[in-house]
Amino acid sequence: MKLGVNIDHIAVLREARRINDPDPLEALGILRSAGADQVTIHLREDRRHINDEDAKRIVQISRLPVNLECSTDSRIIDIVCALKPHRATLVPEKREEVTTEGGLDIFTYEERIAAAIENLHAHEIEVSLFIDPDLETISRSDALGVEWIELHTGRYANIFAMLYSGLQNTPHSIKEFELPRHTLVTELNDSLSTLSVAAEHAASMGLKVAAGHGLNYQNVKEVAKIEAIEELNIGQSIIARSIFTGLEKAIVQMKELLR
Ligand code: PXP
User: With left for phi above 0 and alpha for psi between -120 and 50, is residue 126 left, alpha or beta?
Assistant: First the structure.
């Protein structure tokens, strides 16, 4: 199971002070020596963390493949085409959201997504679509000619948090829902099998399958067991742990769980 480490949160810390420290670029060597397989960054429209200069330097300098997450906005796509990362992952983006809350709505925005894919492919950049684990959405993604899909693991992660982590890891947005334990267990199993069925469906169509969102040291093992998933992209939990252990150890520990 490959690991893409999302380093946006290093830039979040920097932007808290609007200075040059910590520099996300410094993470690249550590990612490599710790055994990460990919650097993942998100160039958001509001540039709240990774900015154009970061993205440019990371793509230029990284010896690991760079997976650049971005919206389908044509101005952003033009920037990504000029940067030429190894892969572009198209994600839905809302300005007011704290993080990417759901998968792309391919049915409503198909034209815009198809245009972004065409432009990226013309620049020899492989494309991934960040989508919910839904069979129809996967089939439509395949029809759009992308190489990868990334399955949104948010539902699984949220249920896991409600069941096992108490309030500690539970997103604020869902804290008010108190479901009985047996309901949560059923929901958790359902969310895992939905991911598994979706991954197998995609792989059987020849798509490469990644997954991510809300994965952490407690919940990652069950997702890592799904054979059709080749890669996980993980940010928040690794960077959070790195504050206490250092980045290298945080990545090594995650890699061990993936094995
Ligand atoms: N994959 C995608 C497409 C994302 O948008 C994000 C969040 O930026 C992640 C993975 C990583 O999510 P998390 O930070 O919750 O691990």
Answer: beta
